[in-house]
Amino acid sequence: MASDIVHIGGYTAASGGRGDGIVAARRDPTSGELTPLGTVAVTDSPSFLARHPARPVLYAVNELPEGRVSAFAVGQRGELTPLAVRATGGAEPCHLAVAPDGGHLFVANYGGGSVAVLPLDDRGVPGERSDLVRHDGHGPDPHRQEQAHCHMVSPDPGTGPLLAVDLGTDSIYRYDLATGRLVPRTPRARTAPGSGPRHLARHPDGRRCWVAGELDATVTAYELTADGALHQRGRVEASGRAGHVQPSEIAVGPDGRFLYVGNRGVGTVAVFALDGELPRLVAEVATGGEWPRHFALVGEHLYVADERADMVRVFHVDPGSGVPDPLGEPVGVSSPTCILP
């Protein structure tokens, strides 16, 4: 069944990677085991993937100097049939997300420091861009924050604004969507200078979210108000390990009790309890590699994509403690950067 298929994106030779496109694997929902099915779409550096909420369509950014989005129809065995390729209007798109109603696709152009909007038709096929908004500014890090670098787009599952996380300007921008165009809400939320916000995780209650700071190795807690404002509640360290720590993915567990943060450099997933105003570190689990770029939580299983170790590691998550425990041997995948159940 297509619901048991996992798709894995990664870097290809176009970006110095070792993959050749999007890989499919079959997931056993009971054991969590992954069985690789091979490459199902040859496409340049599909570094992040997303699915349509109602149609069997998968979207991939092509993280290239002239950014693109590729759309594919998904078959019952995970096979992908090309539907469309569109320009994103900016360099190195690294993240994308579909509006909850399935009507638009949002793309974060990292190199271009911009957010692109593409309308989706009734079949989920993207048309030409309907908007492109560029961020201005920079942060204190001259090497990583010399300009805007949009790293994530996060549509509100309800009626709130789209949140765009920008590593280069230490900002979270808020946008409403009107007839295919982005209308900014001011003011934007400012993170700590030099924090380099990368990804954002929303709580199922809709009232809280947490942001991983890639450059200062922190997690910042926010309250989300009904009108879409973000109020900072405080910050904690993303890892308890010594050494270079560069947070990547951040996500809330299915029951909303735990927060998970991938830490590159030290090769861990940190587990935080969400039973207080700030996240409380309860465990930090080695992934078996150095560079956990992305992970996905599915039921009682955690799938970690380690870009530099060329593997996906499977964990069972204890439902009581929230702590992952590794299962079996890693699954070999070249330069994986995103895993999409």
Features of the shown structure:
4-stranded antiparallel sheet; mainly beta; 341 residues; 28 strands
Task: Chart the SSEs and their pairings.
Layout: E1 5-10, E2 22-27, E3 34-41, E4 49-51, E5 57-62, E6 68-74, E7 80-87, E8 93-98, E9 104-109, E10 114-119, E11 131-134, E12 150-154, E13 162-166, E14 171-178, E15 181-190, E16 197-202, E17 208-213, E18 218-224, E19 230-237, E20 246-252, E21 258-264, E22 268-273, E23 280-286, E24 292-298, E25 301-306, E26 311-317, E27 324-332, E28 336-340
Antiparallel strand pairs: 1-2, 1-28, 2-3, 4-5, 5-6, 6-7, 8-9, 9-10, 10-11, 12-13, 13-14, 14-15, 16-17, 17-18, 18-19, 20-21, 21-22, 22-23, 24-25, 25-26, 26-27
What do these coordinates show?
By secondary structure, the protein is mainly beta. Helix content is 0%, strand content 53%. It is built from no helices and 28 strands. It has strands spanning 5-10, 22-27, 34-41, 49-51, 57-62, 68-74, 80-87, 93-98, 104-109, 114-119, 131-134, 150-154, 162-166, 171-178, 181-190, 197-202, 208-213, 218-224, 230-237, 246-252, 258-264, 268-273, 280-286, 292-298, 301-306, 311-317, 324-332, 336-340. A four-stranded antiparallel beta sheet has the order 3-2-1-28, with no helix packed on it. The chain has a four-stranded antiparallel beta sheet with strand order 4-5-6-7, with no helix packed on it. It has a four-stranded antiparallel beta sheet with strand order 8-9-10-11, with no helix packed on it. β2 and β3 form a beta hairpin. It is globular and about 50 Å long.
